[in-house]
Amino acid sequence: MVSLQELGERELIRNILSIIRRPPGLGPCDDSALMPPMDGDVVACTDSVSFERHFPKGMTYKEFGWTAAAVNISDLAAMGAEPVGLLAAVMMPGDLDERPVYDMMAGMDRCAETFGAHIYGGDTKPGQGAIACTAIGSLRGRRPMLRSGARPGDAVAVTGSLGSAAAGFFSMDRGITGDVPLSPLMTPVPRVDEGAALSGSGAVTSCIDLSDGLAEGARSICGASNVGMDIHTEFLPEGDGVETVHSELGITKEEMMLYWGGDYELLFTFSKDKIGSLYDRDVEFSIIGKVTEGDAPHINRGGTRTVMGNGRY
Amino acid sequence: MVSLQELGERELIRNILSIIRRPPGLGPCDDSALMPPMDGDVVACTDSVSFERHFPKGMTYKEFGWTAAAVNISDLAAMGAEPVGLLAAVMMPGDLDERPVYDMMAGMDRCAETFGAHIYGGDTKPGQGAIACTAIGSLRGRRPMLRSGARPGDAVAVTGSLGSAAAGFFSMDRGITGDVPLSPLMTPVPRVDEGAALSGSGAVTSCIDLSDGLAEGARSICGASNVGMDIHTEFLPEGDGVETVHSELGITKEEMMLYWGGDYELLFTFSKDKIGSLYDRDVEFSIIGKVTEGDAPHINRGGTRTVMGNGRY
């Protein structure tokens, strides 16, 4: 095992290419990558993750690589797009061993594979320990879901459940005895199929992913749509592990479900009169509130309405 | 003027959006960006630049931002593609003032504008001072130029001239009295039009950009094409400033023209019997050698042939 410095960029790239799956187009070997045609509009996003901020205790390098891909694939999913290709700008300390880099790339490739995509290219440079991943995808003819289309009267809903990533984090960070699943934190699963189904339904008026937490997502939709929101706490779908962390550490469930990021669910609004077309799509979701006049999301606790804050952590 | 930490991500992004041109599609505001259809295959690449390695003495933040875009646009140009959109993952220290970030983004946008592209999205995170830019572009129906098509007997050629970026670097770094142009180093101009013309000519058998230097580029083509090369030093087109730096600092011209990166010219090979179609395209280039059997580039100095090394710096 040698350090990246000793190994050199050329050798490092050759080894990475022997680990990841070869993409169908003209993949990582030339100045740029050649990806297949996209059927209309191209959807793209970039997001970076770093050792310092996105590498919780207990995470493996493979899971870090998975996460670098997942945050971006989730951003595509929030628009209703499916990933086709990833690019990875890898910035790692020169004294890091080579093995962790291969593990990160294998994790990234595994996440891409799960959603039918490939790593098409990348770049390796000395740095502090960060991956800036880019995801490029296609709507396959569907209309994109935006943050800006919510209207007063729409229902507010969320896919899956909330708070499991936070519960996983607290359970690793503070060590508790109860059983808390870690996969929501370590290998988050972007809601690609759900995003495609939601955008295909024609019912959804706005959508965002919850990687920054539900409160932050709700604020983004309210800001972009010029609306308010009422979120009813009793309707929030509680994720696995939330109860255990709450009872063992005293952290409130709202803290984990509303203010903590890392859940890769989709928050969306839809026209109530089109709910039938949502049910037709077989997407699992919970209605958690409604869109109102105003400009900010509110929490409704059994009829008492307060502006949604930032949480305590 | 406040630091990024004090300002917060939301405000920072809002300010950046007021500085860069708004793209024609659905630009930086949603989870992902919606870019126009690409006419067939999509070409994409990513490359990161950092304060530590890509910020020579005398460079401004605007020029650093320009460079972040230019290195990627140059990678598209090397394939014959034209840029459509850029994404920017910006990783900056929290104690940095906000102004430099706006300057970087303005510089990046200026570079995009020069080549008919827009910044479509991005991400800001705390970090050590790096930008991972992604460029997405289109071949507009042309065939891509690769590194792997060179054949023995082909001519080796280069656009523009060589060594000016190195000359600019040495002149800033060591301070000399003679006149040396700095723009080749500070605002390198990717050869987008030339790349498009070369790929459209049907004569070119391989191509690479020279951001890592001519020796490195030649090695990449030789490796990918399984060929050797003879580069004749007397044919190398000498860039502005090379003579001055050579005479004042004693740095050899070969060092600046062959081994130093930062020139954004294109190195390419072509079938000699199709040279007419190259001349028809009005691209300025110099023939500097020929493709041979073998597996490595050689330097030919007046008939004496030696394997191309790595330079002294």
Please explain how this structure is put together.
2 copies of one chain form a homodimer. By secondary structure, the first copy, chain A, is an alpha+beta fold. In chain A, helix 5 links the parallel strand 3 (82-92) and strand 4 (118-126). The first copy, chain A, has 2 domains: 4-138, 60s Ribosomal Protein L30, Chain: A (2-Layer Sandwich), CATH 3.30.1330; 155-307, Phosphoribosyl-aminoimidazole Synthetase, Chain A, domain 2. In chain A, helix 4 runs parallel beside helix 5 (98-114) and helix 6 (164-174) packs across helix 10 (242-249). Chain A has 12 helices and 12 strands. Helices cover 35% and strands 25% of the residues of chain A. Chain A has a 7-stranded mixed sheet. Chain A has a 4-stranded mixed sheet with strand order 2-5-3-4. At the A-B interface, strand 1, strand 2, helix 4, strand 3 and strand 4 of A face strand 1, strand 2, helix 4, strand 3 and strand 4 of B.
Main sheet strand line-up of chain A: 7-9-6-10-8-11-12
Strand count, sense and barrel status of the largest sheet of chain A are: 7 strands, mixed
Structural class of chain A: alpha+beta
CATH architecture of the largest domain in chain A, by name, is Alpha-Beta Complex
Helix content of chain A: 25-40%
Strand content of chain A: 25-35%
Number of strands of chain A: 12
Outline of this structure?
Chain A is an alpha+beta fold. Chain A folds into two domains: 135 residues, 2-Layer Sandwich (60s Ribosomal Protein L30, Chain: A); 153 residues, Alpha-Beta Complex (Phosphoribosyl-aminoimidazole Synthetase, Chain A, domain 2). Chain A contains twelve helices and twelve strands.
